[in-house]
Amino acid sequence: MNRHDVIVIGGGPAGLAAAIAAHREGASTLLIEREARLGGILKQCIHDGFGLVHFKEQLTGPEYAERFIEACHQQGLQMLTLTFVTKIEKHGDIFIVSIVNRNGVSKHAAKSIVLATGCRERTAKQIFIHGTRPSGVFTAGTAQHYINLLGYMPTKQCVILGSGDIGLIMARRLTLEGAKVLGVYEAKATPSGLTRNIHQCLYDFDIPLHLSKTVTRVYGGDRLTGVEICAVDSQMNPLPETAEYIECDALILSVGLIPENELAETLSVKLDPKTKGPICNEDFMTSVDGVFTCGNALHVNDLVDYVSESGDIAGAAAAHYTQAPHSEITFHTGQNVAYIVPQQLSQKVTAEKTVLYFRSAKPIERCQLFIKVNNDIVYKKSYAFLKPPEMERLLFDFSALNLQSDDHVTFEIEEESHDLHHLSK
Amino acid sequence: MTCIICPNSCQMTVEASGDTYNVTGHKCARGKAFAISEITNPTRTLCTTVKVNASYLPVISVKTSGPIPKNRLMDVMHVLHAITVNAPLTCGEVVVHDILGLGVDIVTTTSLSDISS
Questions:
Q1: CA dihedral over A32, A34, A38, A44, signed as positive or negative
Q2: Which of A297, B85, B94, B102 is the most buried (most CB within 10 A)?
Q3: Could you tell me the residue range of the domain that residue B31 belongs to?
């Protein structure tokens, strides 16, 4: 059996950054990727806008990945591609990872594991659309895979349901390739994707965005022939009297992403119902000692730069991991906070800066984020606006607070009161 | 207008008086430059794919080496639909020089080995 200090599972942006970091910190590191090429989903994200935070320039997805892949090769990192992890078992302090690839079945041992397994798209089965089961219903990522990697056009005339970023990007991509995108329909009253994508992907190409409308039924035998669209009320219930039929040969879904944690669950890693990723501490170590998480497996990110950042933190921590007793303080989410990552903090946190990611629960203009310890405000920051689709990151030094295990740490977002708003004018 | 340079998506206002433009709402110099360009000559970087021979994938991702006028996007797509390039290719290789005389090249955005490797 091959022995390593750290095994990183997943060769996308999170896993690449984690493997590079673990190797940099002196750990013997193995990176395992199931596909033939490294880069994960970035391989098919051929649009630009990646790397503005990390590299201070606009890169396409494949270019961003290429930089990390180059670094892996230069550092002589041990990598296995076309390799699938079938099982991870914990024996005492050691993890045994069973893999299968062209050389057959084998086992690798490691002191710590980084799970960089990314996320999956929600499918038609998860959003309760009625009707037949014709071909022509794709997730946006599947359509992207067909066009950008396989060179197939999956549609001539389509409807996009959901205003997530991949859906918006595919609206533009399909239009450039000659398809007619009849409209993007979003059940919520506000778009899910980044504002700049609404502009450069939809408005640039005169693609209409319909808010508070959803697809309620699909029609067709072998192939999709049309969809039924309904307006929804404020409770997201479709209003049957508003039903309209739209003829199209494809329905493209961009209705959300869910962190992929099947392997984590086999290790009994505890998941956060809010993020659907593992509950972790500031090193991104999960509830199972020695198992680390990062990237979209941890929580769905909107910028790859932060995926890489979390990979770097998790990889470095995995390299330095030694089994020792530890206790964690739980972060509580107060009003208007959808989630906070990490969800916990080591009581003996030594790092001068802890990286925190959060999202607001609803769009809010003019507000303040508070970190409170037992109702005392230890940090506050003002924001001109917060929107759930746009993740916020901040750095905070918890080491100086000398937190005790019974301290209650809460994150809250408070709207600036209307009266104050007027006074300040 | 909404800035599309970075995810901040700044809401900007441009006031034009003759040849001078007064931009407000931007948080960086790139935003200001974008706002003025969007009024005078809106441009976009085009990212797409072209057909490739002799590789294990049928297409390779490419982009324009710089922004092009927004109203020429479809013209460039039309040219790129008609061309085929040969593997192996490395990231950043020029596959079309000075496309349609727009002063930008079409460059690959990934590396693709040929079928033999």
A1: negative
A2: A297
A3: 1-40
Q: To the nearest whole angstrom, how far is the Cα of A406 from the nearest Cα of chain B?
A: 38
| Position A262 pLDDT exceeds 80 | yes
Q: Mean pLDDT lowest for which of A41-55, A139-153, A161-175, B19-33?
A: B19-33
Q: Do the Cβ atoms of B49 and A196 come within 8 Å?
A: no
**Residues on chain A touching B51 (C-beta within 8 angstroms):** 151
Architecture of domain A123-255: 3-Layer(bba) Sandwich (3.50)
Q: Categorize the per-residue pLDDT at B30 as very low, low, confident or very high, splitting at 50, 70 and 90.
A: confident
Mean pLDDT of A157-178: 96
User: Could A66 and B91 be called an inter-chain contact, meaning their C-beta atoms sit closer than 8 Å?
Assistant: yes
Please give the residue of chain A at the shortest CA–CA distance from B1.
A199
Query: What does the pLDDT read at residue A418?
Result: 56
User: Which stretches of A64-194 are assigned E, i.e. beta strand?
Assistant: 78-80, 84-91, 94-101, 104-115, 119-121, 130-131, 137-139, 157-161, 180-186
Query: Is B63 part of any domain?
Result: yes
In CATH, which of 2.60.40, 2.30.30, 2.60.120, 3.10.20 is domain A328-425?
A: 2.60.40
Q: What CATH number should be reported for the domain holding residue B78? A: 3.10.530.10
Around Cβ A255, how many Cβ atoms within 10 Å?
A: 25
- Per residue in A275-315, pLDDT (tens digit) is 999 999 999 999 999 999 999 999 999 899 999 999 999 99
The confidence score (pLDDT) of residue B19 equals 82
Show me where the domains of chain A are located: 1-120+258-321, 123-255, 328-425
Q: Is residue A425's pLDDT more than 50?
A: no
CA distance B45 to chain A (A): 8
Nearest Cβ partner for B73 among A49, A176, A194: A176
Contacts B3 to A, Cβ<8 Å: 196
Architecture of domain A1-120+258-321: 3-Layer(bba) Sandwich (3.50)
Distance, in Å, from the CA atom of A210 to the CA atom of A231, rounded to the nearest integer, reads: 9
Core vs surface per residue A272-292: b (16+ CB within 10 A) or e: bebbbbbbbbbbbbbbbebbb
- DSSP letters, B8-22, are T--B-EEEEETTEEE
B47: nearest CB among A52, A60, A194: A60
Asked if B74 has any chain A CB less than 8 Å from its own CB, the reply is yes
Q: A94 — contact with chain B (CB < 8 Å)?
A: no
Equal fold, A1-120+258-321 vs A328-425: no
Q: Is the peptide bond before A389 cis (omega within 30 degrees of 0)?
A: no
Find the mean pLDDT for residues A255-259: 93
Asked whether the beta carbons of residue A196 and residue B2 sit closer than 8 angstroms, the reply is yes
Contact B70 A150 (CB under 8 A): no
Pairing of strands A328-333, A409-415: parallel
Q: How confident is the model over A9-23, as a mean pLDDT?
A: 98
pLDDT higher than threshold 50 for residue A422: no
Give the pLDDT mean for A390-403.
90
Residues B29 and B55 in one domain: no
Q: Using the beta-carbon criterion (under 8 Å), do B59 and A149 form an inter-chain contact?
A: yes
Instruction: Read off the pTM.
Output: 0.92
Is the pLDDT assigned to residue A79 strictly greater than 60?
Answer: yes
Count of CB pairs separated by less than 8 Å, A with B: 78
